[in-house]
Amino acid sequence: MHEFLETTVDKFIFRVATDRYYSSDGLWAKVEGNHVRIGMTDFLQQRSGDVAFAEVKPIGTQLSFGDEVSVIETIKVDISLYSPVSGTVLEVNPALDGSPEVINQDPYGEGWLAVIAASDWEKDLNQLLDAQAYFTLMRGQAEEETQKL
Amino acid sequence: MRHDKRVVIVPCSGIGKTYGTVSREAAYELVQDLRPDRTELIALSMLVLGDENTRDIVAENPAITIDGCKLACATKMVAESGGEVAKDIAVLDVYRRYRQFKPRGIAELNDGGLQLSRALAEELAVVVDDLIAPEITHQGNDETLKGTQIGGSDA
After folding, report:
1. What's the rounded Cα separation, in Å, for the pair A57 and A102?
2. CATH 2.30.29.30 is held by the domain A24-129
3. Which one, of A89, A68, A71, lies nearest residue A79 by Cα?
4. Which of B1, B13, B137, B5 has the alpha carbon at shortest distance from B68?
5. Which of B21, B67, B96, B101 would best serve as a mutation to test chain A binding (most A beta carbons within 10 A)?
6. Interface pTM (ipTM) of the complex?
7. Which residues 6+ apart lie within 8 Å of B64 measured at CB?
8. Which residues are registered as beta bridge partners of A36?
9. Mind listing the pLDDT tens digit for each residue in A133-142?
10. Inter-chain contact B92–A52, Cβ cutoff 8 Å?
11. Which residue ranges form the domains of chain B, and what is each CATH number?
12. For chain B, is the Cβ count within 10 Å smaller at the N or the C terminus?
């Protein structure tokens, strides 16, 4: 069971799980033993819209921090997602093939994208935000978005 | 010939949304071209406004709802209006089966969007046939009688 920071902006509720780290462009990274699981934040999935297709780099792909790790096609946009961790792709979420909507339904749980064998986690960590810092950043981004509506 | 029993078609009313436009294009194709004598187009806005005549039609006939997003307004409004949702379909689910037809555009759909609308309309024509006369083999797309449109066409 995750714990969340939560904010309401206009009519939207956004949550940030407290047990992981974040890139400023909306991917989370959660340490699990020697590996790091990654996924999209609640804010990013809501802003992007319902996911039609999700493609993740295949198992064995070597990634540097900031490399494209996934391409998501939603009802609004096609977006590239950039890895918040360097290393090798160990697992890709099999649910994304048949049920990519799981990203929208459970972005911090069943909607994970990949598990990475991190090659330099300590260095990557210096470029990531903790939950509170991302929460502040995300709230600002959300307020900016709603002003455009 | 005019069938007594009709299927009401209720598309998404999302204006400015590509998938909403796909839902309406599919509905027009179904009601005007593919199954004009078996279907009736209902404007979602008339249900939202509580129009009595529209609510009666929905309450008396099976409905196919075509939703443009997960809010599923069409399906919810038919249910709230006392109607029977015989089939609810989301444009996104259809697109996942026809990835080659990538919809783009709002006021005017691109070719992919038009092809997706057509594929959706053809699937729904089969559903209409099953609802109206399950024992009759599907008759193709050659029906010529005009359908009735209630409450406007651009919810």
Report:
1. 18
2. no
3. A71
4. B13
5. B96
6. 0.78
7. B7, B8, B9, B10, B85, B86, B87, B88, B89, B124, B127, B128, B131
8. A31, A116
9. 999 999 999 9
10. yes
11. 7-135 (3.40.50)
12. N
B113 within 8 A of B91, measured Cβ to Cβ: no
**DSSP bridge partners of B7:** B39
DSSP B115-155: HHHHHHHHHHHHHHHHHH-TTSPP--S---SPPEEES-S--
- What single-letter amino acid sits at B82? G
The residue ranges of every structural domain in chain A are 24-129
pLDDT at position A37 over 60: yes
Q: Is this prediction's pTM over 0.90?
A: no
CB neighbour burial string for A68-94, b if at least 16 within 10 angstroms, e if fewer: ebbebbbbeeebebbbbbbbebbebbe
Asked if B69's CB is within 8 angstroms of A52's CB, the reply is: no
A119 touches chain B (CB under 8 A): no
How are strands ordered across the β-sheet holding A21-22? A21-22, A27-32, A35-40, A114-118, A87-92, A62-63
> What are the distances in angstroms from CA B83 to CA A140, B77, B126?
43, 9, 21
Task: Report the distance separating Cα B83 and Cα B59, nearest Å.
Answer: 4
